[in-house]
Amino acid sequence: MTVKDCKQALKESIIKNMMSKKYNFKQAQFFITVNDLASLPQQSIKEIAVCGRSNAGKSSLLNRLTNQTRLAFTSKTPGRTQHINYFSISNTSDNSAADTFLVDLPGYGYAKVPEKIRAHWVGLLSDYLISRPQLVGLVLIMDSRHPLKELDYTMLRFFSSTGKPIHIVLSKSDKLNNQEKTAVLHLVKSTLHDDGFTNFSVQLFSAPKRQGIEDVESVLNSWLYSESSISDKECLHDK
User: Fold this and answer.
1) Rounded Cα gap, residues 112 and 20, in angstroms
2) Beta-ladder partners of 75
3) What is the topology classification, in CATH, of domain 3-236?
4) What is the pLDDT of residue 238?
5) For residue 197, which of 46, 125, 182, 192 is within the disulfide window of CB 3.0 to 4.6 Å?
6) Confidence bin at 80 (pLDDT 50/70/90)
């Protein structure tokens, strides 16, 4: 098999896997809450992290994605969710055997958070995002009416250094008219391209109208099933 043939077979295998396999996010179950890296699940194979500014709509996205009204909780005091929450999305009925997870990260950017707590979050989030090998991608929630705030940019620059993909979900799009939706999509895409970001995708999302759920599912499944049955090493040499 030549390198060209191998790469084509690799591409076809990935597409086949993506079409035939899908995670059922509606079967998601709460798994564990942790407050330090030492407590992260050791059996984990793949994780997708979800983060965003406080009040950007992270809990609403997780609840709509899983079709559960209280899987993820919205704190009465924005910015006070202090832990990393793991939700199992493994295709197994035995939660103890779970190895694939959605990871709900603490919201950032709320001014009333005590400095001591803020410092803990920064250390916990940065260490997790950079050093967690099981992490395959990041879903970044932004309010579609106020995208690309300074802390969003900080997160984008920080995580893009890993080379892993970022999917930007512009929430609360039901608050926009069609012209505004088109404009904000163009703004985010063009701004990030101009700033040198490459490995990202963008979509609109509305929790009340349940718009955009299938797009989110498609992206997450593509990340989780990106590996092929063909070894990468096989494509390094002509045969």
Assistant:
1) 47
2) none
3) Rossmann fold (3.40.50)
4) 38
5) 192
6) very low
Per-residue pLDDT, 12: 55
Contact 9, 1 (CB under 8 A): yes
State the Cα–Cα distance between residues 143 and 84, nearest whole angstrom: 21
Largest CA distance in the chain: 62
Contact indicator for 234, 10 with CB cutoff of 8 Å: no
Amino acid making up residue 111: A
Reference 104, options 145, 141, 77, 151; nearest CA is: 141
**46-52 vs 100-104, strand pairing mode:** parallel
Cα 108 to Cα 97: distance, rounded to the nearest angstrom: 31
- List the one residue out of 30, 109, 119, 12 whose CA is nearest residue 68: 30
Of 113, 104, 112, 95, which is closest to residue 60 (Cα–Cα)? 104
Classify 30 as helix, strand or coil: strand
Question: In which residue are the tokens 């959605």 written?
Answer: 102
Block residue for tokens 């620059």 = 157
Query: Which residue ranges make up each domain of the chain?
Result: 3-236
Residue in this structure with the two tokens 């992290």, named with its chain if needed: 49
Q: Identity (one letter) of the amino acid at 226? A: S
- Which amino acid would we find at residue 60? S
Average the pLDDT over 59-68 and give the result.
90
DSSP annotation string for 192-235 = HHHTT--SEEEEE-BTTTTBSHHHHHHHHHHHHT---SS-GGGG
Question: Are the beta carbons of 171 and 56 closer than 8 angstroms?
Answer: yes
| 121 sits in which H/E element | helix 115-131
Residue type, 20: S
